[in-house]
Specification:
This protein has one domain: Cobalamin-binding domain (Rossmann fold, 3-Layer(aba) Sandwich). 50% of the residues lie in helices and 17% in strands. The chain has six helices and five strands. It has a five-stranded parallel sheet with strand order 2-1-3-4-5, sandwiched between helices. The two termini are 26 Å apart.
Length: 151
């Protein structure tokens, strides 16, 4: 398998969980990406510094503590304003502590407005499948196009 594109994998500063990051690293590596996992409780300055030193094909923010909608929005704004990163920035997991669709939609809209290209909340049906399809399409666009045409 060729590892031609790098994903910067991170979380928000208040999220001390690591199992989600390990899982995402295995998934993205298995798909064919080179993954740089910054680990839990990642300071925003570290993400910004890393993006200013090395380009990444995408930034994936995985959060499960329910505060992603707060710190994630600030992180996205900083990535878009303090770095030259113009490629995909995605957030997923448990973005808030609420489970009602209206609250999740409102927080998702806020995160997109802050600079995320897409939001994948774990309480939204098929969001993980949609994430996998998206990152696969970015790595293998020809295969994705063939798959879409065949539908």
């Amino acid at each position: 398998m060729t590892f031609s594109k790098t994903v910067l994998l991170t979380t928000v500063p208040s999220d001390s969980h690591s199992w989600n990051l390990v899982f995402m690293e295995f998934l993205l590596t298995d798909m064919g990406y080179n993954v740089e996992n910054l680990g839990p409780n990642t300071p925003m300055d570290e993400v910004i510094e890393r993006l200013n030193r090395h380009a990444s094909a995408m930034v994936v923010v995985s959060t499960v503590n329910g505060h992603g909608y707060i710190e994630g929005a600030e992180l996205a704004r900083r990535i878009r304003s303090e770095t030259k990163h113009t490629d995909g920035v995605y957030i997923g997991g448990k973005i808030c502590t609420e489970n009602d669709p209206q609250t999740i939609a409102r927080h998702s809209d806020t995160l997109r407005a802050a600079g995320f290209d897409e939001v994948f909340d774990d309480s939204v049906a098929n969001s993980f499948d949609a994430f996998q399809e998206l990152v696969s399409a970015q790595l293998y666009p020809e295969h994705y196009l063939e798959k879409r045409v065949a539908r």
